[in-house]
Amino acid sequence: MAHSTDLDLVNVIKRFGSHAAVNDVSFSVAPGEFFSILGPSGCGKTTLMRMIAGFENPTSGDIRIRGKSMIGVPANKRPVNMVFQSLALFPMMSVGENVAYGLTCRDVSRAEAEERASRMLERVGLKGFGERRVTALSGGQRQRVAIARCLVLEPTLVLLDEPLGALDLKLREHMKIELKQLQSTFNTTFAYITHDQSEALVMSDRIAVMNQGKFEQVGSPRELYHNPATPFVASFVGETNKWQGEAAAAANGAISVRLPSGTVVQGQGKVADKASLAFVRPEAVALAQDASVLSSLPNRFEGRVSAVLFDGANSSLLIDTAGFDQPVRAVLPQAGPLAGIQVGAPIHVGWTADAMKVFAA
Ligand SMILES: Nc1ncnc2c1ncn2[C@@H]1O[C@H](COP(=O)(O)OP(=O)(O)OP(=O)(O)O)[C@@H](O)[C@H]1O
């Protein structure tokens, strides 16, 4: 019978000496889901992956695949395959031999292994590449070979450890989309680890944001972006403005935050302490040359452009704003009256209370 989850981690802890690299992590991944673990270097992602793959044993807790505990099951007996950043392809073998290798290790006949490898290569867009040396492929093609080699074994679960890390930016952007499409065509469950928030946002059904051995929040890319549960998630996922101040309850269930300068801004959140952090996304900051345009906004201020960060569709402005110790960052639309704005120009900024998330510091 099909199990309702492909992977379950239950209170998994991994200690190295007294340091808990993974500190009481629990989550489940549904069949066919693209699940990412996103966190900064050293947060414990690789350790977590290595335990799922069977290269490392948890200090305590359980790891189940389709409901069956993997504790004590060696790596080569788990229905799991891993794609590493280094890819670990065999340079002396042809593309076809690389893909067929795992099958022949499992006593599949040579003829059948070759047949299945060649069908798999076709599915990943490498039809006719079977005879080539892997050294005669581009970075993106090698990536696809590594994934083909893994998928041909029909694992329940594919683990990917920063597989795009070694590629240049342009290719990484391309492979993000390709990997997501491959995953949905094969409908195989992927657990993906990365420190790159854009990779995680673009590809994942759900993301766990990991920090210092713990999951801070698990949710869809949209949930994490629009409703971060902690200040860490608010800063780590996506670009954001961030200011410190003192919070107090205000009218209409809003929270007012008094910045060190005495300037007060209005936001939303649950704040137990006075010391607080307020976050606003750059795209939530409205810009206007005429202050009256912003008159309906509870937060509106006058400033001066201190930098124009041109980056095509991702361009933004930094605006020195009286009362703020950090410049306000705002997305700069490349169409419309502000597209050509210069450093030094006066400008008005504003945002709603809903757009400003307030957390205890
Ligand atoms: N074998 C080990 N012995 C001792 N400490 C370890 C071992 N492996 C990892 N650690 C420590 O555990 C913590 C988590 O490491 P891990 O490699 O899981 O992080 P990561 O999030 O994957 O980081 P990166 O993105 O840099 O690979 C780090 O502080 C690391 O130094």
Short note summarizing the structure:
The chain contains 8 helices and 20 strands. It is of the alpha+beta class and 361 residues long. The chain folds into 2 domains: 7-234, Rossmann fold (3-Layer(aba) Sandwich), CATH 3.40.50; 239-360, RNA polymerase II/Efflux pump adaptor protein, barrel-sandwich hybrid domain (OB fold (Dihydrolipoamide Acetyltransferase, E2P)), CATH 2.40.50.100.
Strand-helix topology:
Elements: E1 7-16, E2 19-29, E3 34-38, H1 45-53, E4 60-65, E5 68-69, E6 80-83, H2 95-105, H3 110-123, H4 139-151, E7 157-161, H5 169-186, E8 189-194, H6 197-203, E9 206-211, E10 214-219, H7 221-226, H8 231-236, E11 241-249, E12 255-258, E13 264-267, E14 275-280, E15 286-288, E16 299-309, E17 316-321, E18 328-331, E19 346-351, E20 356-360
Parallel strand pairs: 3-8, 3-9, 6-7, 7-8
Antiparallel strand pairs: 1-2, 1-4, 4-5, 9-10, 11-12, 11-14, 12-13, 14-20, 15-19, 16-17, 16-19, 17-18
The structure holds adenosine-5'-triphosphate.
Residues 16, 21, 39, 41-47, 195 line the site of adenosine-5'-triphosphate.
